[in-house]
Amino acid sequence: MAKVDVHCRYCHKSEDVKRHGKGNGGHSRYRCYACRKVFQLEYTYQACKPSVKEQIVDMAMNNGGIVIPPVY
């Protein structure tokens, strides 16, 4: 069986990360005992990925994707 070295996405430590069951999509969840956060490496739903949240905040700050119709 292969060992996967998992790093915490919040504090970037690997020695304090342990498996913490499975998420709703069946993917493994991990818990970092250094910062006490729970995270997944894979997501079934793309909206749950951390990069999507960053993209939403970036678009909101730069008025991206918002079209204001002209008022007549």
From TrEMBL:
Residues 1-36 form the InsA N-terminal zinc ribbon domain. InterPro entries: InsA_HTH_dom, InsA_N_dom_Znf, IS1_transposase_InsA. The keyword Cytoplasm does not apply. One of its GO terms (biological process) is DNA transposition. It comes from the Bacteria. Keywords: DNA recombination, Transposition. Residues 43-65 form the Insertion element IS1 protein InsA helix-turn-helix domain. Belongs to the IS1 elements InsA family. Absolutely required for transposition of IS1. This is InsA C-terminal domain-containing protein. It comes from Xenorhabdus japonica.
